[in-house]
Write a structure and sequence with these properties.
69 residues, mainly alpha, SP0561-like, single chain, 4 helices, 0% strand
């Protein structure tokens, strides 16, 4: 099972599955194509954008779990 962690780089998660785009967008990360997304961890991006990283992580991991059913 794919597992997303807070220290993962946003671009790496997007490469794992493009279906994660709407999840990032829904949580307020709209600049997925910006250069920072290829260097910034999910936790760092959440901090910069004032997001709840735990809720984002839950949604991302629920998405990957749903792919395995």
């Amino acid at each position: 099972m794919a597992k997303v962690t807070k220290d993962m780089i946003i671009a790496d998660v997007l490469r794992m599955d493009k279906g994660t785009v709407p999840i990032f967008m829904r949580h307020g990360l709209h600049c997925l194509g910006c250069p920072a997304s290829s260097m910034e961890s999910i936790e760092d991006a959440a901090s910069v954008h004032g997001m709840n990283v735990d809720t984002l992580m839950n949604d991302l991991n629920e998405y990957f779990e749903s792919l395995e059913k």
